[in-house]
Amino acid sequence: MKDKTKFTLQKYARRYLIDAMGAMALGLFASLLIGTIFKALGMIPIPKVSGFLTEIGSYGAVIAGPAMAVAIAYALKAHPLVIFSCVLVGYMANAKGGAGGPLAVLIIAIASSEIGMLVSKKTKIDILITPFVTILVGGLLSVSIAPPIGVAVSWIGSFIGWATLQQPFLMGLIISVVIGIALTLPISSAAICAAVGLSAVGATGALAANNPEGLALAGGAAIAGCCAQMVGFAVMSFKENKWGGLVSQGIGTSMLQMPNIVKNPRIWIPTILASAITGPLSTCLFRLRMYGPAIDSGMGTCGLLGPIGLILGWTGGNYPASVTARDWIGLVLICFLLPAALSLLFSEILYKVKWIKDGDLKLPE
């Protein structure tokens, strides 16, 4: 009996925390993240082409919820009508979930798909019953649990707000690690950074009025943490995922590794340790300060928007000091070279002690 229960738990853990979450990451990549890359390309000043690419990218965020929900339903092997009904479910769950939108979509799309499958193809009016039940369940859950999920995730923002008031070393350590982890989890690190205002420009409230320099440094630390996750996973999994994995994680999302993290949480140690080092280096040594859009502080190397945000802040007329060689050296080291080198170093140590084994970082085909 105990073995049967264990098997059942393993079955559903794999179904929901590995298969569904892995598919959700692909849905997010095919919508919001690829849209972000189009927007980044749109920054290149090419007449007519730039505006076209930016317009394509702008729709990525709009359809992220539906894309994630459909991907989840597909991974659960739902019937077509259930999958198609999840378009509306995903849009509503993501919108109601705020910064916790992706997590809300994951939970609500799973529930809607499973309940939709209970009635799918069971009646002669399936074309009416299946979408009605699937969307009704998704709508009720979106109204009832998506907002609390958003509130819970916003507590991370409150914690980050507290961290910005600490001395630079502690601030850099906390913000880099926490925002980096948020980037890889099924929540929105970009939304958290935008909500807190991790930039010296555009933020409002007491934090912006009392500590604009702290917000600027905090934005730099957030970029450090996000880059540590994305570049770190991309590089340390290169032998298993090759160039496709390098690109999809390095300029896409480290969330692709979440199913592997569920199976072996120890694979997360190298990138977290890397962020714990690069964050304080950013705030204390290179003093990278974010004067670009706050949302870019939570993007990391996704579409290269983290580094681009820093550069735009330097050249946009708001940066209070001249840009020096130290700024450029810091950007390259913090955003690219150190995350790669540190994550590789720590991962090799964990391979040697057998905390990580071959295949642990392999992305699904």
Fold blueprint:
Layout: H1 2-41, H2 49-58, H3 64-75, H4 80-97, H5 101-119, H6 126-144, H7 146-163, H8 168-184, H9 189-196, H10 206-210, H11 212-236, H12 238-250, H13 258-263, H14 269-286, H15 305-315, H16 325-352
Helix pairs in contact: 1-2, 1-3, 3-4, 3-5, 4-5, 4-6, 4-7, 5-6, 7-9, 8-9, 8-11, 8-14, 11-12, 11-14, 11-16, 14-16
In words, what does this structure look like?
With 365 residues, the protein is mostly helical. The chain has 2 domains: 143 residues, no CATH class; 203 residues, no CATH class. The protein is built from 16 helices and no strands. Helix 5 packs antiparallel against helix 6 and helix 11 crosses helix 16. The radius of gyration is 21 Å and the shape is globular.
How is this structure best summarized?
Helix content is 73%, strand content 0%. It has 365 residues and is mostly helical.
